[in-house]
TrEMBL record:
It comes from Streptomyces justiciae. The lineage of its organism: Bacteria, Bacillati, Actinomycetota, Actinomycetes, Kitasatosporales. Pfam families: EF-hand_7 (PF13499). This is EF-hand domain-containing protein. It comes from the Bacteria. Residues 2-37 form the EF-hand domain.
Amino acid sequence: MADIDEARKQFERIDTDGDGVITAAEFKTALAQEGDWNVTESVAEVIIKTRDLNGDKVLSFDEFWTYLSK
Ligand SMILES: [Ca+2]
Ligand SMILES: [Ca+2]
């Protein structure tokens, strides 16, 4: 069960420039910080694509939350 406050914190941690969306580059950096150095930017793009509901190639909090709460 995902908690929206936790999700918000996690989202803000990944969104390093604070513009309210997560790009592939930000996602890759976040995974690398968690120790997953195998994720390249193109892998991060694919992961984002599977969660990107409106096709703008970045993750909004709503999309992030929808993914977590599934
Ligand atoms: Ca961002
Ligand atoms: Ca999107």
